[in-house]
Write a structure and sequence with these properties.
Layout: E1 6-8, H1 10-20, H2 30-37, E2 40-41, H3 51-57, H4 67-73, E3 88-93, E4 95-100, H5 104-116, H6 127-143, E5 156-158, E6 164-166, H7 167-177, E7 182-187, E8 190-194, H8 202-205, H9 212-227, H10 234-239, E9 244-249, E10 256-259, H11 264-267, H12 269-275, E11 286-288, H13 299-306, E12 328-332, E13 335-345, E14 350-358, H14 365-375
Parallel strand pairs: 1-9
Antiparallel strand pairs: 2-4, 3-4, 5-6, 7-8, 9-10, 11-12, 12-13, 13-14
Length: 379
């Protein structure tokens, strides 16, 4: 039976999200942030810092650009971590994400299903792809970790984005999705692949595979850990009914859900507000969020709770963009007060603001300077 909803105001929901999403009290390191959120989305686009770095810099004390990848793969790009040293790894959980090693068993069933599926780009390899896959795996086994550029094979293929690429790169991507290789390192963000047994600990790879029901439940709980206040289908809510609390924000809209263990924050929300240093617009309390920050990831929820109608416009045609290619939401205390669209010009050492629309009275310039300092640039 689903729990009866508790009623909260919009401002209370905002304060809850700020607290539970790590934006009030920073974590002491990447490991604790990853444990709290379940996963962190990885993205290669680097306009003013990469997505994962922009997410974690607001949540981890003393976070520096690249710390997540160093946590996953070690400090030396040329010498990957040994399996027993791994605390996290990269794989797909809807999106490419950094995950703790304990997530591996829950991904195995989906990997195996892809290997035999005839639906979609990531499914069963064609005969030609399988021949190349066997060659690639033999090369990795003999030579050690390799990038796609290390594979001598010039045939072309189509990527998941319907663009052209070397077939070796495409096959390696599919082998990753099938769990036959893993990313063991990044060299200037390029993927370096190795065999799973040379990346993850043997105890992790041999762990019992959860049942389908256990995996479905785990997936829903991961979503709750990632966003902390979420919309769930009735079927998903039933899977985790013993672990969730329904929440009704204001008078309109269907209930949303949080983890039952988190619901106690609503009981002392006034305490949370009193302890918080957040105040709309005050210098030091204005921050630039990542475009896909968990606070605004769910567009409908961002509208309901934050009065913020936001779309990440990287894939929007230029003529249709409203905010800009890589606009960052401006968090000012308990408000989202607009956006700033910055661009890192690495050659000149500057962070240039391409566009900005921020509510009057909110000072965003200090937040821009703070981002520039994080990237090692000047404004």
């Amino acid at each position: 039976m689903l729990p009866k909803p508790i009623d909260v105001t919009q401002v209370q929901a905002r304060r809850f999200m700020l607290r539970l999403l790590g934006l009030e009290r920073p974590f002491d390191g990447v490991e604790s942030a990853l444990a709290h959120h379940g996963f962190v989305q990885l993205d290669p686009i680097n306009v003013c810092g990469r997505m994962h770095d922009l997410i974690l810099r607001n949540r981890v004390a003393g976070y520096q650009e690249g710390d997540l990848l160093r946590y996953l793969h070690g400090d030396d790009e040329q010498v990957p971590l040994r399996p027993e040293q791994r605390r996290g790894f990269e794989h797909y959980f809807g999106v490419l994400a950094a995950l703790p090693v304990g997530a591996w068993p829950y991904l195995v069933g989906r990997m195996r299903a892809r290997r035999s599926s005839t639906d979609g780009w990531a499914g069963k390899l064609s005969r030609e792809e399988e021949r190349l896959a066997r060659f690639v795996l033999a090369e990795i086994a003999a030579r050690g970790p390799l990038t796609s550029d290390d594979i001598e094979h010039d045939a072309r293929a189509v990527t998941a984005w319907n663009s052209g690429a070397r077939q070796a790169k495409v096959v390696l991507e599919k082998l990753l999705l099938h769990g036959r290789v893993l990313i063991t390192a990044r060299r200037r963000f390029r993927r370096v692949y190795d065999l799973p047994e040379r990346v993850l600990p043997a105890a992790v790879l041999s762990a019992p595979e959860p049942t389908r029901a256990e995996t479905q439940r785990w997936s829903v709980l991961m979503k709750l850990r990632q966003l902390r206040l979420v919309r769930l289908s009735r079927a998903d809510a039933k899977l985790v009914a013993d672990a969730i609390q329904a929440v009704r924000v204001g008078a309109e809209g269907a209930p949303v859900y949080c983890l039952r263990e988190d619901a106690q924050v609503f009981e002392r929300i006034d305490e949370v507000a009193a302890a918080s240093t957040c105040a709309p617009g005050r210098e030091g309390d204005v921050r630039l969020l990542a475009p896909l920050d968990p606070l605004v990831y769910d567009r409908e929820l961002a509208r309901r709770i934050w009065d913020f109608d936001y779309t990440w416009e990287v894939y929007t045609p230029p003529a249709k963009r409203v905010r800009g290619y890589y606009a960052l939401p401006v968090l000012a205390g308990t408000d989202i007060a607009g956006h700033v669209d910055p661009k890192a010009e690495r050659e000149s050492g500057r962070l240039r603001v391409v566009g900005r629309r921020v509510r009057r009275g909110v000072a965003s310039a200090p937040a821009v300077r703070e981002l520039a300092a994080f990237l090692g640039l000047r404004v």
